[in-house]
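This part of the workshop introduces the protein records we will be handling. A record pairs a protein's sequence with a compact description of its fold. Comparing a sequence with its tokens is the quickest way to learn the format. The record below serves as our worked example for the rest of this section:
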Amino acid sequence: MREPTLPPVFGRLGVKSPVAIVAASATSSNTTNLAARMREGLSSRRGLALNLGVVLWTVLVLAAVFFILQT
């Protein structure tokens, strides 16, 4: 009788999933270039990005509270 195969183990000691490899190879160079440009732009304006992130997070929390209280 054949033993069942073990499920893949994720993490430092495990094997990476084949789906992640396929998804990574399917991305185009334009997406890679866009991600690099966005990372470079955010690193040059780190304070502005942090402030905008805090403002956006605050607005989302207040909107959620508003909609919860409306029900």
Observations:
- The mean pLDDT is 75.
